[in-house]
# Entry
Amino acid sequence: MVKRYIVMFKEGTPNEKIAQAAADVEKSGGTVTHRYWEGGGIEGFAATMEDDHLNSLTESSLQPGSAIDSIEPDGVVTTQ
# Structure
């Protein structure tokens, strides 16, 4: 099932590394909807992706030295 996620990277992660992860999502059939490393002040991207690629990213984030800080479901946030 295709779902929307926000993938955040650790501070100081080179833009090239984030761009490669985003390209990998797109190669696997996902769609990067927002690129936050392009002048946004935060390092990451939002994407729609299949569960199997999400699982691959999650496994990668658990490896020692991984640049991925968090992977969260994308959604609407309100203050009240």
In short: The CA atoms of residues 21 and 57 lie 9 Å apart. The longest strand covers residues 3-9.
